Amino acid sequence: MKIDAMTFTFALRNLLRQKGRTGMTLASIIFGVIGLILSGGFVEDVFIQLREATIHSRLGHLQIYKEGFYAQGSKEPYDYLIEAPDDMEAEVAAQPGVVDTMKRLNFFGLLNNTRTDLPIIGEGVEPEKEAKLGSFFFIIEGRQLTDDDAYGVLLGEGVAKSLKLEVGSFVTVLANTPDGALNSLEFEVVGVFRTFSKDYDARAVRVALPAAQELLSVSGVHAVVVSLADTLETDTSAELIRSQIRDDDYELKTWFELDDFYAKTVDLYKSQLGVLQFIILVVVLLSVANSVSMTAYERVGEFGTLKALGKRSSDISKLIILENALLGFIGATLGVLLGIALALGISAIGIPMPPPPNANVGYTALIRVVPGVVIVSFLIGFVATVLSAVLAARGASRVPVVEALRQNI
Question: Which end of the chain is more exposed for a tag (fewer CB within 10 A), N or C?
Answer without folding.
Answer: C
